[in-house]
């Protein structure tokens, strides 16, 4: 018997259609090199500067890292956990723009940092415990100016996130909700084909009501697509 819960959705047969920190003694590179492959390729001077100025933050679920209109003081590189980048629509409903997961960074924060403009959305910690490397804005700009590894990383973040945003916008304009939900489930599943999201969180990402998500997931469960 299949069952759809509010906590986790398991894919069955879909086919693709500031708190604490650690620093100093080279600990930044030691703790982050497995998450961000560009780190070992930094020049020696850049490695020293990063170790002296970077901070590893440990944030709890629900913490608001940035609000619309804030000036960004640094780049946020997620080592574990997840951040939700969202806006609030005219009806006061939160609409997710994208998620920032382990090994990723926030595109809007990078853009705001380099362009010296206010942050255009809100950022909230959505996992129980999230670890983040924060690089101060002035330091990141200096590293970007002199180190090709940093420039390549920034370009990669921008390219991938823009692709994700364009894909989401295209789906919003051309696909019915059921197809967009299918696409979301496929993209969000982990290695065990599980999705640990509430129906409300999924609804926020898709820009719809929780009841609509629940109804569609029940339909999928009846067809043996999810459990």
Written overview of the protein:
The chain has 227 residues and is an alpha+beta fold. The chain has a domain at 18-175: Jelly Rolls (Sandwich), CATH 2.60.120. The chain has 8 helices and 9 strands. The protein has helices at 27-32, 44-53, 107-115, 137-146, 148-174, 177-188, 199-206, 210-222, and strands at 9-10, 55-60, 64-66, 74-80, 82-88, 94-101, 122-125, 129-136, 194-195. A 4-stranded antiparallel sheet has the order 3-7-5-6. A 3-stranded antiparallel sheet has the order 2-8-4. Helix 4 (137-146) crosses helix 5 (148-174) and helix 7 crosses helix 8.
Concise synopsis of the structure shown:
The protein has 227 residues and is of the alpha+beta class. The protein has helices at residues 27-32, 44-53, 107-115, 137-146, 148-174, 177-188, 199-206, 210-222, and strands spanning 9-10, 55-60, 64-66, 74-80, 82-88, 94-101, 122-125, 129-136, 194-195. The chain has a domain at 18-175: Jelly Rolls, CATH 2.60.120.
């Amino acid at each position: 018997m299949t069952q759809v819960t509010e906590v986790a959705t398991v894919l069955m047969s879909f086919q693709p259609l500031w708190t604490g920190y650690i620093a100093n003694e080279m600990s930044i590179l030691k703790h982050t090199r497995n998450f961000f492959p560009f780190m070992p390729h930094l020049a020696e001077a850049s490695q020293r500067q990063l170790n002296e100025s970077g901070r590893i933050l440990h944030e709890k679920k629900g913490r608001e890292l940035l609000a619309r209109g804030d000036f960004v003081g640094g780049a946020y590189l997620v080592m574990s956990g997840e951040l939700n980048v969202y806006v609030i629509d005219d009806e006061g409903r939160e609409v997710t723009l994208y998620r920032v997961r382990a090994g990723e960074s926030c595109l809007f924060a990078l853009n705001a940092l380099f362009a010296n403009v206010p942050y255009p959305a809100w950022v909230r910690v959505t996992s129980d415990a999230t670890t983040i490397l924060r690089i101060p804005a002035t330091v990141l700009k200096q590293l970007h100016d002199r180190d090709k590894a940093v420039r390549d990383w920034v370009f990669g973040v921008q390219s991938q996130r823009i692709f994700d945003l364009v894909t989401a916008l295209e789906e919003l304009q051309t696909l019915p909700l059921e197809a967009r939900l299918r696409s979301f489930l496929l993209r969000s599943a982990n290695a065990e084909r599980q999705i640990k999201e509430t129906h409300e969180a999924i609804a926020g990402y898709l820009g719809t009501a929780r009841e609509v998500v629940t109804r569609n997931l029940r339909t999928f469960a009846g067809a043996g697509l999810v459990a």
